[in-house]
Amino acid sequence: MAGKRMTKAVRRLQLLDTAAAMIRAGGTDALTLANLAERAGVSKPIAYEHFETRNGLLMQLYQHLDDRHMQRVAMALSAAPMSLDATLTLFSEAFIDCGVETGPEFGAIAAALAASPELASFRLGVRARYLEAIRLALTAHPSVGAALPEAVLIGLIGAANELAQEAASGRLARDAAVAALNFLARQALPPRLKPSVSRRAGQAQTPDIPNVC
To answer: With 70 as the cut, is the pLDDT of residue 182 above it?
Structure first.
């Protein structure tokens, strides 16, 4: 008896997960719609129906990975306690951990799309989502949100992305990346608002972060 056919949404996720695995194994150079169709066990027209072009595939894969990343960061920040210290720690851990779990393919996709004009506008939209997530997390600390210009938040997001990619590639240890991002987040605060930093590693207690990556 023939197996049940996948819905279009489920098939799309299967193709995106297959494409991510292909990039993880061999980089972006070998990723074509024809190769993806072969690896996923579908016909070429199905792959073209979902993505149309190689750039279309890369863009949708970039968004798919970023959606998971954004979901984890947003969940962590929404669950953050009233303590500003814990909020900054949660932000740093969630951002770096999701980058590590996503793997180096996220950076490889961005590099492959570097010359694409569509990527520039798309990344502005991604950045706007992160800015909104951070602002939402800081609503419990209105004096902080008011004291941080958007340019500072943009710089913090840029640093967070670079640190996450370095950790994902293995060039930087996860704990070192978290510590660096936590340090930068604290340094971005005006002196009167900087939370006290524990001298003993691991002293601060933070809630578990749901794993959605």
So the answer is: yes
